[in-house]
Amino acid sequence: MSETRFPGGATLRARRNRRLSSVHDVAEVTPGWRVTPVGNGPRNTTFENWIGRRLRYTGLTGGGIAYTRDAADVNDEYGHLLQLGILHSGRVTVTREGRTMIGEAGTVIVLRVDTPYETITDAGSALTLLYVPIDQVEARGIDTRRMNGQIWQAGPIEAAITEIAPRALDLDEQDGLILEGGLFELVIGLLARHDDAAGEDVAAQTRNRVLAIIEESYTQVDLDAATIARRLGVSRRYLYTLFEGRDASVAALIRNRRVTHAEKLLVDDTDLSLRRVAQLSGLGSEDRLLRTFKTVLGISPSAYRRQAHIDGGEAILAREVR
């Protein structure tokens, strides 16, 4: 099988940092994407890139721009590429196949460029983008269709890639191509690791991510199943099916975690008002705290507090064990 290589053969072609002040400027350096302004964009946009034998690198800062790949674009000269995007600051919103993913600073998003999608970069975003031919990735046994749309938290390998990639701009051609070869292997290793993870029980992984989000964010009043679905880039229906037939739904898991925290607050600090307990536990209001306690525990928060202290705190201990 012949390998796909970029135009220019063994030549590493570079374009140094360039400030872009208009949509036209941005469109000129990203010809494979339809570029439209969002809000007051583009704002403070800079661009640098190089093209090697097996990788393209782009460093992009700024935002307020939507980059769109339509069905008519997928067979163009960029359609054979897999994009690995590392977001350093700001936020990007990716829409593909009717699903929306939100990438925050410190996340990685993988996309096949031969499928339609739209990426919106918020003002203040900074990204490292690497493009590698799909056939070369798949020649290493990596399923790029399974990888398409994957999102994960960046770690040390991503940090190394981010640091190394721009250095090719300051090297001569021979050294730049050597650096590109090492960087290519890093990218392949990173994709292989996450492809293995994607091949495991995806439903179990997603359930674990749901539980992690609840644990991290249950004190936020607006956390609900819809919010979690948006963060994960899945539909609410899919989220509901993950917990069908299990002990608790997503809504019940959020509610119960808030109740457990509220119980602890009621017992640990008797000076806290019920209103403050509701705010700190994510239940939001005293009325909702009352209704939720009645539903879950069959007792009011005030009665629970009194009973817990009569029992010497045994009630909260028993609840935590459950």
Low-confidence runs (pLDDT<50, min 5 residues)?
1-5, 313-322
In total, the number of strands is 12
Strand order of the largest sheet: 1-3-4-11-6-9-12
Helical percent range?
40-55%
- Distance from N terminus to C terminus (CA atoms, Å) equals 58 Å
Average residue pLDDT: 86
Give helix and strand order, one letter per element, not per position.
EHEEEEEEEEEEHHEHHHHHHHHHH
Oligomer: single chain
Explained architecture:
By secondary structure, the chain is an alpha+beta fold. The N terminus and C terminus are likely disordered. The protein is built from 13 helices and twelve strands. The N and C termini lie far apart (about 60 Å). Strands 1-3-4-11-6-9-12 form a seven-stranded antiparallel β-sheet, with helices on both faces. A five-stranded antiparallel β-sheet has the order 2-5-10-7-8.
Entry keywords:
alpha+beta, disordered N terminus, disordered C terminus
Summarize, please.
The protein has 322 residues and is of the alpha+beta class. The protein has helices spanning 23-29, 134-138, 144-147, 156-164, 173-198, 202-217, 225-232, 236-242, 250-268, 274-281, 286-296, 301-310, 314-321, and strands at 13-20, 34-37, 45-51, 56-62, 65-69, 81-89, 91-96, 99-104, 107-112, 117-121, 125-133, 151-153. The strands form 2 sheets. It has a 7-stranded antiparallel sheet, with helices on both faces. The protein has a 5-stranded antiparallel sheet with strand order 2-5-10-7-8.
